[in-house]
Amino acid sequence: MLQHYAGTMTNPAAVLWDMDGTLVDTEPYWIRAETELMNAHGIPWSDEQGLEFVGNDLLTSAGMMRDAGLDLPAEQIVDTLLDEVIAQIRQDVPFRPGALGFLAALVAEGIPCVMVTMSYRRLAEAVIAACPDGSFVGLVSGDEVSAGKPDPEPYLKGAESLGLEPGLCVALEDSKPGLASAEAAGTIAIGIPHLVDLEAKPDRILWSSLEGATVDDLRELTAQRSA
Q1: Which pLDDT score, from 0 to 100, does residue 144 have?
Q2: What is the rounded CA–CA span in Å between residue 83 and residue 223?
Q3: Domain stops at, among 91, 108, 130
Q4: Which residues pair with 190 in a beta bridge?
């Protein structure tokens, strides 16, 4: 994925994983749950509207649904959506291509992984439970931060949970708010666009997929950052 780097290569101190859209393809589950809830209250809803929510913290998305005419408390909207998505996850966990293999390679190399997601803990724990034992050593969830993505707080907390500086950590993200959060936190941020395009910028790292990604790719990025 990267051109060969001749410098000394070392492992990143940790990898901070986004969940929805990066590790698992749950965005269609969220869009389906949003559409069913809006339609149940007589409000038309489209996939295009659902895509505007990708990467948001859940209360922000609930507020947008209220603005569109859904007359329910934001907390009730979030709980309803979570219940529906968790029910779908329990039937089928749609891992993104290459994600499980890459995760296993990191664990085999002793590189700790922390999940940093705007989904709430009860959903994140259901996804972690479907991963091989020991895949994640920590979790930062959307109901445990005071400011969600694109604020840097989630990724700052992810690094802090391991006692690490963010600049020593790689972050994997698929959304605009998530990538902005990871970059603002100072991580080695990698954008892996899925449902939403990510803007190419100088010094921004974009991968097309986790398929074929290797630990050596991360070592090269870490070496380049050190240089």
Answers
A1: 94
A2: 43
A3: 91
A4: 172, 205
Asked, as a colleague might, if the bond just before 44 is cis with ω within 30 of 0, I would say no
Residue type, 44: P
Burial class of residue 57 (count of CB atoms within 10 Å of its CB; 0-12, 13-18, 19+): buried
Instruction: Please report, for the domain that includes residue 203, its CATH number.
Output: 3.40.50.1000
Distance CA(205)–CA(64), nearest Å, equals: 30
Q: Which residue has the tokens 């790719």?
A: 217
By annotation, the residues acting in catalysis are: 18, 20
Give the domain extent around 59: 27-91
pLDDT for residue 4: 47
Instruction: Report phi then psi at 113, rounded to 5.
Output: -120, 135
Number of neighbouring beta carbons within 10 Å of residue 169: 27
How far apart are alpha carbons 227 and 172 in whole angstroms? 21
* pLDDT value at residue 51: 83
Residue type for position 120: Y
Q: For residues 204, 144, 93 and 172, what is the CA-based torsion angle, rounded to 10 degrees?
A: 10
Q: Which two tokens stand for residue 164?
A: 């690490």
Single pTM value for the model: 0.85
Q: Do 112 and 209 fall within a single domain? A: yes
